[in-house]
Amino acid sequence: MTELRGALIGCGFFAINQMHAWNDVEGARIVAICDRDPERLDIVGGQFGIERRYSDAEALFADGGFDFVDIATTVQSHRALVEMAARNKVPAICQKPFAKTLSDAKAMVEACREAGVALMVHENFRWQTPIQALRTALDTGAIGTPFWGRFSFRSGYDVFSGQPYLAEGERFIIEDLGIHTLDIARYILGDVSSLTARTRRVNPNIKGEDVATILLDHENGATSVVDVSYATKLSKEPFPETLIELDGAEGTIRLRQEYGLEITNAKGTTITDVSPKLLSWASRPWHNIQESVYAIQQHWVDQLKRGAEHSTSGADNLKTFALVEAAYDSASRGQTIDVGAML
Ligand code: NAD
């Protein structure tokens, strides 16, 4: 099997997970890295033994010698870097949030489509082992047609120490975390036609909202609630687990804290342990996310080699990104938003 060569741009906090995962992925390796911060470049280059190091992405592309680029910078640079990849005809992975606005995101998808290169958003939460297990149960008809769901992420975990920029933006939880939860809701119950949201800020030391409650009308008639909070102090901290409730015509599924998948139907109730693996480089409680980073990057390589569409392609992610914008719009205007009209 030919090995794809990748270049990684952005050697920050989360890129460490991506670099570890690239070591585990079959069929690809990272041959060059880029960061405008020389200290980060040294740390990651040294830790992972990468000799080709660049402080400027234009210089990286000018030298070439790689088959794809993995963009792990924060959102401000995503559009410029994805368009740079398209100009250079290099397939690209881009971290979430995909873009600053939906119109930027649409332009990025269009640039890659015109250049004929694959574009995948690193929307990894749907690749978590418990989410995949729940989807399999649904697909095999365990509860019949689902008509209601709840996708919940409520935590008091201090995310600001590792990612200080999260405290500084006008927008916080929907853009950073809710984007994943909304994507899971779409992945499980299908695309969304309209949405209503309420937000608030509880933590006085941050700028954006840290609590959001979002009501989704799915195109297939199902209703769901996405509720996210970083202001919820519980006896047993669930970070970073997404808890799910699904009601179907023939039964129910509950994804409970500590990774128990409970299915109730005419046959009775079963509880299965759907815990993620603790990869050699992973650490609790992040291991659920870390395993999904490996899974999405392996999916990138496999689909690229087959020439097939990625589960979280740029085009797919527009439908998740629209939910983020719709949620902020709904919360500020107090109105229900027609999501279909935005796409
Ligand atoms: P970070 O600030 O720690 O790292 C970003 C790095 O990119 C920095 O080292 C910075 O110098 C570099 N950079 C920025 N612009 C650049 C440019 N134009 N050229 C070269 N280098 C540039 O941020 P982070 O916490 O690692 O987050 C990065 C992204 O990952 C964010 O978009 C964040 O939302 C996302 N993230 C995703 C997950 C997930 O589970 N998918 C989890 C955490 C963070």
What is the topology?
Elements: E1 4-9, H1 15-24, E2 28-34, H2 38-48, E3 52-54, H3 57-63, E4 68-71, H4 78-87, E5 92-95, H5 102-115, E6 119-122, H6 129-139, E7 146-154, H7 173-189, E8 192-200, E9 211-218, E10 223-229, E11 243-248, E12 251-256, E13 260-265, E14 268-273, H8 287-306, H9 314-333, E15 337-338
Parallel strand pairs: 1-2, 1-4, 2-3, 4-5, 5-6, 7-10
Antiparallel strand pairs: 7-11, 8-9, 8-15, 9-10, 11-12, 12-13, 13-14
Helix pairs in contact: 1-8, 4-5, 5-9, 7-9
The structure holds nicotinamide-adenine-dinucleotide.
Task: Describe the protein.
The structure is a single chain. The protein has 2 domains: 4-117, NAD(P)-binding Rossmann-like Domain (Rossmann fold, 3-Layer(aba) Sandwich); 126-294 and 320-342, Dihydrodipicolinate Reductase, domain 2. β2, α2 (38-48) and β3 (52-54) form a beta-alpha-beta unit. The protein has 343 residues and is an alpha/beta fold. It starts with a strand and ends in a 5-residue tail after the last strand. The longest helix is centred in the last third of the chain and has 20 residues, at 287-306. The strands form 2 sheets. It has a 9-stranded mixed beta sheet. The chain has a 6-stranded parallel beta sheet with strand order 3-2-1-4-5-6, with helices on both faces. It contains 9 helices and 15 strands. Nicotinamide-adenine-dinucleotide is lined by residues 9-15, 34-37, 40, 57, 72-75, 77, 95-96, 122, 124, 163, 176, 289.
